[in-house]
Specification:
mainly alpha; globular; Arc Repressor Mutant, subunit A; about 5% strand; two-stranded antiparallel ribbon; about 250 residues; disordered N terminus; Four Helix Bundle (Hemerythrin (Met), subunit A); 2 domains; 11 helices
Length: about 250
């Protein structure tokens, strides 16, 4: 699937859901939301972010706070901004290729946070799959999920596959219609992205994961709630076993 098809069929709906009004610590919350959206591929490399005014309205912050957040993203080399006609803020962060060397640099505290995220994921994502399958999905929602699955299956690099995998799970969560479920799955996927980026790429695992995604997709589209929940549980359990084994 081309980037334009991805943008048209998947991303606009997901970005509207993922970027939400911030609470306290507005600057930090803006940076966290936008950086997470970029790292998980909701805003892929080369994507132009919405205008400052639109983002400020969406996250319910002042334009000055939003500008400070954008400056932080530029300092972290996640985006670049150009002025004048045709200008805007463009994502420049290339998706990271998973590398086992990152695991050696993790702290015990970080590993404990990661392992807790796996427990939380086991509770959240199967429930999200159940609710998505139970929902009355219209043609557009079904097309978004199918398109998200196609981008995982058609990813041309392991780095792009990792981002596409996250997007599939986020789109699935969005079909529940629950902002709280989307927020929870986003938190889980952010931690999972860190973990999977710190282990070697295993072809057998990628192939197995893709088959499970296909089974989850079919269960949700067929409205088979219990099947969707059980299949997602198996998917979460298999991923957790792999990560616990390789990360220690």
């Amino acid at each position: 699937m081309t980037a334009s098809h991805l943008d048209g069929r998947v991303l606009p709906d997901l970005t509207r859901i993922l970027l939400r009004p911030v609470g306290g610590h507005a600057f930090e919350s803006c940076v966290e939301q936008l950086a997470t959206a970029i790292r998980l591929g909701v805003y892929p490399l080369g994507t132009t972010l919405p205008s400052e005014r639109e983002l400020a309205e969406r996250m319910k912050v002042s334009r000055s706070t939003l500008r400070e957040a954008m400056a932080a993203l530029r300092a972290a080399d996640l985006v670049q901004t150009s002025r004048g006609r045709g200008g805007g803020t463009v994502v420049t962060m290339k998706p990271q290729t998973p590398s086992a060397r990152r695991a050696a640099r993790t702290t015990p505290e970080q590993r404990a946070r990661w392992l807790d995220a796996l427990v939380f994921r086991r509770a959240v994502e199967p429930a999200a799959a159940y609710q998505a399958a139970a929902a009355d999905l219209g043609p557009e929602a079904r097309a978004r999920l199918e398109a998200a699955h196609e981008t995982v299956a058609g990813a041309t690099s392991r780095a792009r596959h990792r981002q596409a995998d996250s997007r599939f799970h986020l789109i699935l969560a969005s079909l529940t219609g629950s902002p709280r479920i989307v927020e929870a799955v986003t938190s889980v996927q952010a931690c999972l992205h860190e973990m999977l980026s710190a282990i070697p790429v295993l072809e057998a695992n990628i192939a197995h994961s893709d088959r499970q995604h296909q089974a989850i997709l079919r269960s949700v589209l067929d409205g088979r709630s219990e099947k969707a929940r059980r299949t997602m549980e198996e998917h979460c359990d298999d991923t957790a076993a792999l990560l616990r084994g390789l990360l220690g």
